[in-house]
Amino acid sequence: YPQITPIQIQVTATYPGANGTLVAQNIGAPIEQQVNGANNMLYMSSTSSSTGNYTLTVYFSLDTDPNLAQVDVQNRVNLAMAQLPKSVQAQ
């Protein structure tokens, strides 16, 4: 069967004690700014919860090598790390 679902790479983070708005502003915005424009990326979606959890899912075209996509996203997240709160970086 041909592959019909896009390649997905997921990024998660936790900001202890933060609400959804703080999570979106302090974790989501810096990470999404760096990840946006990754090679072969189609789109991304994220959630920020009131329990301090953040999840970003990045979708890539079908012909993308999942290993290369993961490395690209990881490198881009590493660029955003300096902008994240210390309690998030520690995790």
Structure commentary:
38% of the residues lie in helices and 26% in strands. With 91 residues, the protein is an alpha+beta fold. It has a three-stranded antiparallel sheet, with helices on one face. Strand 2 (41-48) and strand 3 form a beta hairpin. It is elongated and about 45 Å long. The model has no long low-confidence stretch (mean pLDDT 93).
Largest sheet: 3 strands, antiparallel
| Average pLDDT for all residues | 93
Sheet with most strands: strand arrangement: 1-3-2
Radius of gyration from the alpha-carbon trace, in angstroms: 14 Å
Shape: elongated
Give the percentage of residues in beta strands: 25-35%
What layout of secondary structure does this protein have?
Layout: E1 7-14, H1 20-35, E2 41-48, E3 53-60, H2 66-80, H3 86-89
Antiparallel strand pairs: 1-3, 2-3
